[in-house]
Amino acid sequence: MDEDRQMTPFPTARLFTHEAMNTTFHLRICEAAESTARDMARECCDHLDFLESRLSRFIEDSDVSLINRMQAGQTLYINELTHQCLLAALDAYARTGGLFDITLGSRIEHRKSADPGPVPSLAGQLTIHPDVPAVTCGEPGREIDLGGIGKGFALDQLRLRLLDWGAEGGLLTAGASSMLAFGPHAWPVDLSGDVESARIALSKQSLSVSGTAIQGSHIIHPGGETAMPAAPCRRVWVTAPTATLAEIWSTALMLVAPGEIPDFIAGEETIGTVHLQIDDRPVVLPHAIGDCRS
Asked: Among 16, 57, 84, 269, which lies 20 to 30 A Cα-Cα from 287?
């Protein structure tokens, strides 16, 4: 481990921070000219604010808030980027066998508020139109909460903006749970367990972590409280070609019993590597897919 730390120096980059989506974004941009880097970062920060205004369920006139207030038979036309994020979540629902579900907003609020009452039932139906940026409500009751996938989607959008600018590369992070590396550089990233850590070199990939160590059991299972694994992982780290996919899989795998994860992800091409912390330290999980870097 010490040798790996010496072999992977931190690339030279200009650092910018921005508060959005209830977290701190760090933008490390490999750009020689300070003025150009600042212009890049300013555009990225403005775009983050725009994405939050469309994706946050806590902003009254966001696309997500408007969807959550729809009545039966209504159709709402939404921003194209919101539509892309919702379609990614719909694909994730299918890939994960229903474990990744963004329509659990009422249950998430029930958990966060420590409501002693019964867990809200999953009533309602929403249809995301595949070819038109629109959502139709068949029956009210489902509430969208994009959570981590919204932050991952935002990182992917920032990468596209920076590539349009001609940025050489960079490392983009949303809080401590999601990061995206692009360009030719390898970025040393520590997977911090309760007692020991492991270091990986993140290159042309994204990494996301989910766990119970800090926020407790905050991830909601679509099947209800009794469907949670009896002994879930303390943490799950997943690398993937996009930050959206990394967020999806790190969340979903928290809802799978550790011993069942290898079979659950067998053959899944949107996962790079998986590290689990079951006891005190991270352990890499063999996953025979190969290099899925973008």
From this structure: 84
CA distance 143 to 147: 12
CA distances to 166, 185, 199, 291 from 270, in Å: 26, 22, 22, 10
Give me the residues paired with residue 199 across strands: 190
CATH of the domain at 132: 1.10.3980.10
- State which amino acid sits at residue 207: L
* Residue 194 tokens, joined: 């309760």
Say if residues 194 and 171 touch (Cβ distance below 8 Å). Answer: no
Residue 141 CA: distances (Å) to CA of 64, 122, 137? 14, 7, 9
Q: pLDDT tens for residues 198-246?
A: 889 999 999 999 987 544 455 666 665 555 665 678 889 999 999 999 9
Note the pTM of the prediction, 2 decimals: 0.88
Number of neighbouring beta carbons within 10 Å of residue 270:
19
Q: How many domains does the chain have?
A: 1
